[in-house]
Write a structure and sequence with these properties.
Number of strands: 0
Order of helices and strands: HHHHHHHHHH
Radius of gyration: 19 Å
Oligomer: single chain
Helix content: over 70%
Structural class: mainly alpha
Number of domains: 2
Number of helices: 10
Shape: globular
């Protein structure tokens, strides 16, 4: 019974933080404060009440519409809230130490915020990365990896690898993507960030090819890359060791 209560608490914590991450991801790129003005409907500007702000459940209760003007509430809000709740709980359940739990929470938090920002503005604000960068440094000082140089090597590998690809592709990889991968490398280390990057590239290429074949994406149409980074990094974080073991077994 105690375990169920803990699981529910972790999940609800993720829901609440996911709601906050929506605010951060939408307001920071626009140069707005995350504190003022209070949450309000973007259509009728009515200030939202507690009934409107319960993560996921308010969206379902209100039928995905504003209570006053009945304008549609973007699906990204409950999606980010639910995803953060599920990923927080997954991080907790898969971890074997407090270090792994906190690492998962930090990774998910960064990824959810930049996902909102990239989907809305196709932008990864430096302010968000500069906020998480010292947090990741502090985390790696408190919980040094084994070997100790894995964290700075992960940062360097992420930055150098993507910078080279960006130069070769002549801007095909955005500067925000480069900095994001480098910061993630500081948290996860060399192997996870490289695996995550190649998975991101694979998923991005597959979706791009399929989208063009189905005429859903035009040639050279800009496509947000962060969703693929999020997918690749999460798979690497949760299943990276299994993927490496599978690959080795496949070869040998």
């Amino acid at each position: 019974m105690m375990n169920i209560s803990i699981y529910m608490y972790i999940f609800f914590l993720g829901l609440v933080l996911g709601s906050f991450y929506n605010v951060v991801g939408l307001r920071i790129p626009a140069g707005n404060s995350i504190i003022t003005p209070p949450s309000h409907c973007p259509s009728c500007e009515r200030r939202l009440t507690i009934l409107d702000l319960v993560p996921v459940f308010s969206y379902i209760y209100l039928g995905g519409k504003c209570r006053t003007c009945h304008s549609k509430i973007p699906m990204i809000y409950p999606a980010i809230e639910a995803a953060t709740g599920v990923l927080f709980l997954s991080s907790f359940l898969s971890a074997t130490s407090i270090e792994e739990i906190l690492c998962g929470f930090l990774l998910v938090s960064l990824l959810m915020i930049v996902l909102v920002s990239d989907l809305e503005y196709m932008l990864i604000p430096d302010k968000i990365l500069l906020f998480f960068f010292p947090l990741f440094i502090a985390f790696r000082i408190i919980f040094p990896p084994d070997p100790w140089w894995d964290a700075p090597a992960g940062f360097t590998a992420g930055f150098v690898l993507l910078t080279l690809i960006s130069l070769i592709s002549r801007g095909g990889m955005g500067g925000g993507d480069v900095k994001l991968i480098a910061v993630i490398g500081l948290l996860l280390g060399v192997k996870p960030v490289i695996i995550g990057f190649f998975l991101s590239t694979f998923f991005g290429a597959m979706i791009g090819i399929c989208g063009q074949l189905l005429c859903l994406i035009k040639h050279r149409q800009p496509v947000p890359f962060v969703p693929f980074i999020v997918l690749g990094m999460l798979i690497s974080f949760f299943f990276g060791d299994q993927l490496i073991a599978f690959y080795i077994d496949l070869i040998f």
